Amino acid sequence: MAVDYTVIVLYLAGMLAMGWWGMRRARSKSDFLVAGRRLGPAMYSGTMAAIVLGGASTIGGVGLGYRYGLSGAWMVFTIGLGLLALSVFFSARIARLKVYTVSEMLDLRYGGRAGVISGVVMWAYTLMLAVTSTIAYATIFDVLFDMNRTLAIVIGGTIVVAYSTLGGMWSITLTDMVQFVVKTIGVLLLLLPIAVVKAGGFSEMKAKLPTSYFDPLGIGGETIFTYVLIYTFGMLIGQDIWQRVFTARGDRTAKWGGTVAGTYCLVYALAGAVIGTAAKVMYPKLGSPDDAFATIVKDELPVGVRGLVLAAALAAVMSTSSGALIACATVANNDIWSRIRGRSRSGDHDEVRGNRAFILIMGVAVIGTAIALNNVVEALTVAYNLLVGGLLVPILGGLLWKRGTVQGALAAVTVGGLAVVGLMAGHGILANEPVYYGLLASLAAYVVVSLATRPTDAAVLATWRERLAGRGTPERASEPVPAAQ
To answer: What is the predicted pLDDT for the residue at 418?
Structure first.
């Protein structure tokens, strides 16, 4: 596997080089956290697709295809639907706000006081998202080098922390663009056709597998509905996704670039399910469905190609991990630490150095948590349940309903979050009921409390409307710069 090793090592070295180069462009808070808000359509589309399609979408998507057939595409498909909905209906308005975090948006809309508790919930979500992505390094490095789990997590996590700390969003954007290209070549152009051919083609796959494997709804209606609640709605409100929207140079880039990325996700979803279905034909008795990706890559691909496809899997994990890491650090610094210290975000302290330090600190925490954690699925489920159950209603309510108040928002976050935690304790972490009833409780609290309290101050709403229209932004105007394409 010397050729495969060379491909992987060159890829990892390239990621570090991108981080070093990106450091030269990160000269301000805006550069470091949102790439100067000047990404053009090509880079925006590629990096947005890269962050939402991580290890769960690649290794997990193939595993769902192995277990359920074509209907295993639904998890990644609902991610694509969420990205499409965000891009078409909300991204232009979000981009015009010129904020850095979801909690800042809530403070702006409701007149302050909503950001602290929402920041804590969002921080927990982004931390666990980064942790679960980091754990996936163990699977890939085990296939490559038969490496110890802890060592694999440390090596993979250290590389991501290094390039993220060096250049912030500029480094992450550059590496994500490379990762997008590698994923497209490795998964869509190489692994997909090779897997189908090795399985004997679609006619042989249909002959050897039950008809349920080719039923679009075979995974079950309730499961699909749960995916929509968790992943489609999760795409609408996650800090990691919003922070990428903030990088767009304008409304049209955010809308149409995101639409292209969402469409790409739909194609990627189907590809993963087909690869998993082909693996079921070739290896009908694997110990775990999640082993399907690694097994087919290791046993069926030629030398060199195998290294590129494994690099594609590594790219998928790294893109999600780095995006979640910078989101986690941004929330920790801007929404939690700055409030605790009582220091204004617009102070004259070195904000790039401060945010860089937080990425390093959060990166170490992510690696340590990833080493200690065992049940990845449960951890990620807790994170998404809290995110959707606690924050979906006040965020979308703030964008769509002018009668919503800060008291209603706080009630929605508190009641929804507590309901989700209580229901997970009673029904089990992986049950569907926590997100169903937690979301309903959050909605009821938001509407009832908002109607029972005084409307949001007219001056606050006027400022909010100005920002939504792209006027009255807090950032100092600067000279025009060439847009990144």
So the answer is: 92
Retrieve residue 15's tokens: 């990621």
Which position has the token pair 């990166």?
Answer: 363
The residues facing 484 across adjacent strands are 39
Task: For residue 390, give the nearest of 419, 362, 357, 416 by alpha carbon.
Answer: 416
CA distance 166 to 157: 14
3-class SS at 39?
strand
> Taken in order 73, 396, 417, 157, is the CA torsion positive or negative?
positive
Q: What tens digit of pLDDT does each residue of 251-280 get?
A: 899 999 999 999 999 999 999 999 999 999
Q: Extract the tokens encoding 419.
A: 């309901």
Between CA 155 and CA 15 the distance in angstroms is 13
Tokens encoding 296: 């087919």
User: Which residue's structure tokens are 């880079």?
Assistant: 43
The two tokens of residue 162 are 């290094």
Q: Under a CB-based contact definition with an 8 Å cutoff, are residues 9 and 165 in contact?
A: no
Q: Say which amino acid occupies 461.
A: L
Q: What is the pLDDT of residue 196?
A: 94
DSSP string for 401-426 = -TT--HHHHHHHHHHHHHHHHHHHHH
3 state DSSP class of 248 = strand
Segments of the chain with pLDDT less than 50? 345-349, 476-485
pLDDT in tens, 217-261: 999 998 999 899 888 998 998 888 999 999 998 889 999 999 999
Cα angle 243, 244, 246; round to 5 = 65
- CA-closest candidate to residue 18, choices 176, 193, 175: 175
Residue 412: per-residue pLDDT: 93
Q: What is the pLDDT of residue 394?
A: 93
pLDDT for res 6? 84
String of DSSP letters for 134-183: HHHHHHHHHHHH---HHHHHHHHHHHHHHHHHHHHHHHHHHHHHHHHHHH
Residue 484 backbone phi and psi in degrees, to 5? -75, 130
Residue 455 gets the label, from left (phi > 0), alpha (psi -120 to 50) or beta, of beta
Q: What is the pLDDT of residue 363?
A: 93
pLDDT for 23 equals 78
User: Which two three-digit tokens encode residue 190?
Assistant: 């190489």
Length of the chain: 485
Give the single-character DSSP code of 469: T
Which residues have a Cβ under 8 Å from the Cβ of 374 and sit 6 or more positions away? none
Task: Name the 3-class secondary structure at 315.
Answer: helix
Give backbone dihedrals phi and psi of 183, rounded to 5 degrees, phi first: -65, -45
